[in-house]
Amino acid sequence: MEYLAQFLRSLSDDPQIFRLVFIITVATAMFIFGLGIIYLISSVFNPVRRRLHLIGNTSSEIQDASVSELPSALGPLAGLTMPRKDWDRNKTSQLLVHAGIRAPNAITTFYAIKTVLIILLPGTILLLASIFPKYSTQQVAFAMILAIFLAVTLPDSILQSLARKRKKRLRNGFPDALDLLVVCTEAGLGLNQAIDRVAREIEDNYPDLSQELALVNVEIRAGVKREVALRDLANRTGLEDIKGLVALLTQSMRLGTGVADTLRIYAEEFRDKRMQLAEELAAKIGTKMIFPLVICLFPGFFVVILGPAYLKIIGMFGHV
């Protein structure tokens, strides 16, 4: 650390020039890092790559070609933090899919970003500590531990937050989509046509769910079996309600029963389930209101009720 500081100070004896060189160096490093992050993120969210991946789900050759386009620099970076166990990697891949990130190199990009953060944040702390030696060793050590902790946990927290928010959006749009499916199937449309129509109808209000339903049609048109496409829908969304619907539709198609009747029965059961959930949440309001009342309302209530009496008592004893 001291050698680094002496080397940087030896660049110029003028403190103003030294500070200017330091600011330019840090700004350049942050600019390059920002460009790298933008490139990595754009490679994940690129609509062209996403569309090619959708088509490539039915062809292993196209999928292998897209994976081979992975930048060579991401592999070694991701290998430093990527778990060795398949279960941990599958868990991260599932979170990426639930967050709507389905690029072939998404998991490699994710762990590459984590590796860059683990190297960059502590390195920045060391550089700042070398330039400004007024901080003690304990403070620098605490800052480095905090930087490493943030670098390790922040990407996972952000990914979990993205997956949780997307699940919430899908859950909010599912009841309307289910009712529209019932209406379309009872009007005489087949299941594929009904899914396509519902996907177009809810595109403005629920774009995430519309995209998932449209992807089901893309897979079916590409030659994937309907049961497999519906099972993929349940795995991509991660919602128990959609998993239940997919299981019911799969059983209905195997037994040859009417899809419209199956959807109508499931819609009624799902509506009852939502009503029970609303009643359960309403029953919990009384318990949840205890702490706000005790902390916020009761202190003000006691001040208003007991305040005048307290002032009178103080006044009486003050004259004695």
Structure characterization notes:
The protein has 320 residues and is mainly alpha-helical. It folds into 2 domains: 2-165, no CATH class; 167-283. The chain contains 15 helices and no strands. The protein has helices at residues 2-9, 15-45, 47-56, 60-68, 74-81, 86-98, 106-131, 137-186, 191-201, 207-221, 226-237, 240-255, 259-283, 285-288, 290-319. The relative contact order is 0.06. Residues 57-71 have low confidence and may be disordered.
Give the % helix. over 70%
Kindly report the average pLDDT value.
Answer: 78
What's the structural domain tally? 2
Largest β sheet strand count, sense and barrel closure? none
**Mass-distribution shape:** flat
The first-to-last residue Cα distance is 70 Å
Poorly predicted runs are 57-71
Beta-strand content estimate: under 5%
Which structural class matches the secondary elements? mainly alpha
Listing every helix as H and every strand as E from the N terminus to the C terminus, the arrangement reads HHHHHHHHHHHHHHH
| Number of E-state strands | 0
Oligomerization state of this entry?
single chain
Individual helix count = 15
Question: What integer value in Å does the Rg equal?
Answer: 29 Å
Short description:
The chain is mainly alpha-helical and 320 residues long. Helix content is 84%, strand content 0%.
What is the topology?
Layout: H1 2-9, H2 15-45, H3 47-56, H4 60-68, H5 74-81, H6 86-98, H7 106-131, H8 137-186, H9 191-201, H10 207-221, H11 226-237, H12 240-255, H13 259-283, H14 285-288, H15 290-319
Helix pairs in contact: 3-4, 5-7, 6-8, 7-8, 8-9, 8-13, 9-10, 10-11, 11-12, 12-13
